[in-house]
Amino acid sequence: MVLLVPCAISPLYMDRDLLKQQLKYTLEGTDFDDQGELYRGKVRDNYVNEDTITMVTTDRISAFDRVLGTVPFKGQALVELADWWFGETADIVANHVMRRPHPNVWTVRRCDPIQVEMVVRGYITGVTSTSAWTAYEKGDRNFCGNELPDGMRKNEKLPEPIITPSTKAVQGEHDESVTPSELYKRGVIDPALFKELSRISMRLYERGVSRAADKGLIFVDTKYEFGISKGKIMLMDEVNTPDSSRYWMADDYEKRFEKGEEPRKLDKEYVRTWLAEKGFTGDGKPPKLTDELRIEAASRYMEVVESFTEEPMQLEVGPVDESIYSILNPFAY
After folding, report:
1. Which domains are present in the chain?
2. How big is the CA angle at 211 (ends 205 and 62), to the nearest 5 degrees?
3. Are 312 and 306 in contact (CB under 8 A)?
4. Inter-helix orientation angle 291-309/74-88, to 10°
5. What is each CA distance from 139 to 34, 151, 205, 306, in whole angstroms?
6. What local confidence, expressed as pLDDT, does residue 280 receive?
7. Cα(239)–Cα(13) distance, rounded to whole angstroms?
């Protein structure tokens, strides 16, 4: 077993050598045969038991609905930030988290997932096939039932936030942005439940906008996933992380927008943009992520985390799967 070396880093003095050291230890996946039935998502390894799930957030990174590789400490960053946001939004909606036994792990309540992603957008942007800007650029002025004005530019603030639901595709397939009426027609969700999820989602987004503004950030858009536990709506998966949300730096947004320049981004869009510039938007063979890209992505994730929590992440160089298993099954060593 490799000894772990604890190191704390600050967003102002990011130790990229530390991130480089962790490249060979990133958590690509787990295979714990005594923790429950394993179901792998794009990013999480879920060990399902009767009433709970042990949810391991790996360092895998996905874009355009494809898993592309790993980013050092990404799993820990996602759990750290989502933990903070679950606490900040507990007055709006209950969530599935019960405890956090390891920096990368939650024990969560089993929920019956609602098969809709509630996407809330405050700006028109994006490079994916389901993005509002992609549709707008093609001439679509009615996006998922929302009427959009003519003459908008990429990265412009919408007149008011909109909800654009998306289907939840199985791994390897693409999500689909649809109208609420289409969801009703397919029998995915009934109108009353969709209305309630919309109300909750908009409140969550507004809370995100407010908290982000306090940190000098623009909370651009996000997606929320919900489930039902004992008849109660539960926020699940994650909340307001750089994987499920876009964050821009606020200080120079207006100046860059007026010049037609991209905002400074602290989220996964940085990776999506790099892939798109390489000609990959979901189909065919993806380009291999460079170490430089992985390190830069890691530093951006950590900067978002530390901006909100106002505490440096406690990072340990070494194999993450071993440290997880030593806690989930301490008698194994």
Report:
1. 5-112+280-304+311-332 (3.30.200.20), 113-274 (3.30.470.20)
2. 60
3. yes
4. 20
5. 53, 11, 27, 39
6. 94
7. 27
